[in-house]
Known about the structure:
Rossmann fold; 22% strand; five-stranded parallel β-sheet; Arc Repressor Mutant, subunit A; four-stranded antiparallel β-sheet; 8 helices; alpha/beta; 2 domains
Amino acid sequence: MKGQIAIVEDEPDIAELVSHHLKKAGYKTKIFYDAQSFLNCLRNTTFSLVILDLMLPDMDGIEVCKEIKNSEKFKDIPVVMLTARGKEEDKVLGLELGADDYVTKPFSPRELVARVNAILRRVKKEKDFVKIGEILKIDFNKFEVFVKDKKIELRSAEFKILKMLAEKKGWVFTRRQILENLWEGEKEVLDRTVDVHIRNLRKKLGEAGKFIKSIRGVGYKIEE
């Protein structure tokens, strides 16, 4: 799977149509028929992209977009606005708020999927290199990690954990989520395995190990 996409659309037929074509393209989807249920879920769920209708029953989509883009935690999630409102001022306002694209109904599902693919390719390219603070640099393409320009040798599992945390700075991952990412949910792998890898990772990162924060009873996050 390429990632999970939130579809915030109050018309079931349209939501199911979009979901069907995205699933055919290899994405997981989650449908929300109102703004509040989506915002409640957003706090505890990782989405690669949001397809957002502007005319929702409980809140204007513009306001939902504003909440996403004004949040330090969620502002990097791409938003594609999907609406019957085709006025230029609506498009401009949405794009000024930080929306990544604007699709007007009626639309071609294939074109929508193509736009989603293009946005996520761009986002992935932008995230191929991450800097945490002023001392930790991670090159996802070359699988290289540097602390104050000194290359740090990490094992595969350690790098995967660091990558997972760094790609979603500030996001708290449970031990189970980390395990599933590393070992695809093998039941015999114990939760404490993650703690061991985290401990070794912090030690190898030295001064930069402070960026990996423990959330008591939950898991871990990376934060400057």
